[in-house]
Each structure stands twice: as C-alpha cells, then as structure tokens.
Design goal:
mainly beta; five-stranded mixed β-sheet; five-stranded antiparallel β-sheet; 1 helix; Lipoprotein; signal
C-alpha cells in the first residue's frame, strides 16, 4: 500500500530544530557526526548538587567504571577469528548497515572516504549477504534526477527488510521487502528535502515526533507524539529522548504505546545505541566534556565507560563495540569490546581507521572510514566470542 508519510507522520524541519538544539559533544578526530544525529536543545549546566544523570525516581545514576585503557590485548587467530573480509572496488568503502548473529548482513558500498566536504558520495545497491550468496535488493522504477542513496538507513525488521532510499535532489521513499523477495514495496514517499523517517524499528518506521508507520502503510499509535524528540529502536521497544529548557529525559515506549521514564538530566543526553536490555548514553558535562554510561534498563544498574568514543557503537547482549577517544587517521587503530556484565574489556588492533561498527551475538563487523586500496579490503566480519 502506497501512502505519503505526511498523511500519517508529522515531519520536523531540521532548520527549525536546529534553532533550539545544542551542539553535540564532539566525536573523535576523523569521525564526523551526521547532521540529523542530535535532537537535544540547549539546557543549563547542572549545579554541583544536581546529579549529572539520574534515574526517573531522582536517584543518581552510579556504578562501576571500566577504563578501556586497561583492556586486555587480543589478536586475530588468538580467540578472535576472521570470518570474512569485506571487499569492494578500489576507491570505494563498504558499509554494513545491519548484522545478524547467523552472519547474514545488509551492506551498501560508498565511493570515497567518510570525511566531510566535497560532493555527495556515489552509492552501490543495497545487498543482503548470507550463507547462500548475495541478493541485490531492488526497488520499483523511480524517475528522479541526481544520485540516489539506496539504503544506508536499512535494517532487518519483522518479516523482511526495510530501507530508505533518497535522491540528493530531495525525493525519498521508504521500502519494505518481505523475506524471500528481492524487490521492495513502497510504504511511504515524500518530496521534501527533509526525510520524515529517522529510525527503523522492528515493526515500524519512526520520525522525530515518535510517530510510527507500519510496513503495510498504516499508522501505529504512539504515546510519544510530541515535538522535539529523538527516537532510537531498542529491541521491540523505542527509546524516546525528549528535551526542554529544563533538561532532558529518556523514556522507554513498548509496542503497545505505553511509556515509562528511564533517566533524566539537567543537561543534554544522547542515546547512542539500544537493544532489548541495555542503552548507551552520552551525557554532556559542561561545554567540552561528557560521560558515557551503559544502562541496564531492566535491572536499573549502570556502568560508566572511560576513554571510549560513543559514536555509533555496536551493542548486543551487554557487550559494546567501540573505538577509543584518541584514535585518528594517522595513529594506531584499535577496536574495543567491553562486556559490562562481566566487567571486562578487550582491545584488538586493526590496520585501518574503523568507522562503521556492528555487533550481533559472537559476531562483530567493522568497516574503514577511508576507501579501499588495490587489494579491495575495506573491513571485516569477525568472530569475537563471549568470554568464559
């Protein structure tokens, strides 16, 4: 069923949003934050007696600290095994946009490096890669001018794959391909420069107001249909980050639409990743600093991570895949896998500056921020098992 997103989901203009938002804590050198990645307004720095981050009942968030500088060194072939290299044409780089524990993944190739500036990237088609080979996911014919991004916003969802394709000229489409099919069906589309779809959950697509649209094109009622929110899927739930001049709150909304507050802060809070049980948040401290916490939203416990760059980490089953704060294009390159349940961290050297990170079960994927050389290697799928 084809339906314009505007009929079911309110679209927020980023220009209006930017007028009431604060700058996001800076990512590490060599890593850029996407323009649509923040929705927290300017808020005052908390007074000394106020907790930087508190649970919904006002209790300060507290817990053990894991410093990734103390991580145990691991090597390929010694506990961590190479499953497959991610190969692309010279001058291109791969992007793994979703990964399953069985090794199936969604990927798209991009031309050039991930540094800001210059014109739009070139894109290859969205592909589903699995044990039985590679399937190119197709979309119905689309007469648009300009380059088309076929699916850097894509994921495995209930019963199939959903993705957003967009033209640099403005038009965009939300598509859904059921399991076993390689052609997507148009669920929603629009002509504006701003794309209504901000996140893909398992059962619906979401916009910045928390509005939802199911894969059959019908609107799904939500309790978070309010302005100035940022949404992040977490398992079957939705993490809703809402802010006012007095601070920010993160709440958990279940599939039935009921919402439960999780944490709040007098400063800005950014949800970096979420799954069925854990949430990675970055909390602004003053103008130039921040704290990174991994919250167990079921047990209401927390672990603070030191020395970690929270930019788009991989998260699954209490483990977080990330890079270090000091990484840059010229320095040593390392991946860190932190197990907040076992209170353990491991460090793996890699030969390229990693950018795209994914984690699913015992599998980890990383892709390089720069284009592949003559060997065509732009990243890898690794087997990085849970510890004993």
């Amino acid at each position: 069923m084809r339906r314009g997103m505007g009929t079911g989901i309110a679209v927020l203009a980023l220009s209006a949003l930017a007028a009431c938002t604060a700058e996001e804590p800076a990512a590490s050198p060599g890593v850029t934050t996407p323009p649509g990645g923040v929705a927290s307004p300017a808020v005052t720095t908390p007074a000394p007696e106020e907790p930087i981050l508190a649970w919904a009942d006002g209790t300060p968030v507290d817990g053990p600290t894991i410093d990734i500088d103390d991580a145990v060194d691991v090597r390929l072939g010694e506990g961590v095994m190479l499953v497959s290299e991610l190969r692309v044409a010279e001058g291109w780089r791969p992007a793994v946009v979703d990964l399953r524990p069985d090794g199936t993944y969604l990927a798209v190739d991009l031309e050039g490096d991930a540094s800001p500036g210059g014109g739009p990237d070139g894109y290859g088609p969205l592909r589903l890669v699995g044990a039985h080979g590679t399937t190119t996911l197709r979309s119905p014919g689309w007469e648009v001018s300009g380059m088309v991004d076929p699916g850097t916003l894509a994921r495995f969802v209930d019963g199939g794959v959903a993705w957003v394709e967009r033209s640099v000229e403005g038009p965009w489409r939300l598509l859904y391909a059921p399991d076993g099919e390689d052609e997507g069906r148009v669920v929603a589309e629009g002509d504006g420069v701003e794309i209504a779809v901000r996140a893909l959950g398992r059962s619906a697509a979401y916009d910045d107001r928390g509005g939802a649209l199911g894969w059959d094109g019908t609107r799904v009622p939500r309790s978070s249909d309010a302005p100035d929110v940022w949404v992040t899927p977490g398992g079957n739930d939705l993490l809703v980050n809402s802010c006012t001049d007095d601070g920010c709150e993160v709440s958990v909304e279940n599939p039935e639409g009921s919402s439960t507050p999780l944490v709040r802060a007098p400063g800005s809070v950014f949800v970096r990743a979420a799954d069925e049980q854990h949430v990675v948040v970055q909390v602004a401290v003053g103008e130039d600093d921040s704290q990174v916490w991994v919250l167990d939203r079921t047990a209401r416990t927390a672990v603070r991570l030191l020395g970690a760059d929270p930019y788009e980490p991989g998260l699954d089953d209490g483990r977080v895949l990330m890079t270090g704060e000091s990484m840059d294009a010229e320095g040593e390159h390392e991946l860190f896998l932190v197990d907040v349940v076992e209170q353990r961290s491991e460090r793996l050297p890699v030969d390229r500056l990693p950018l795209g990170l994914s984690l699913a079960g015992d599998l980890a994927a990383w892709t390089a921020s720069g284009p592949a050389g003559a060997d065509g290697v732009g990243g890898a799928i690794l087997s990085w098992p849970h510890g004993d």
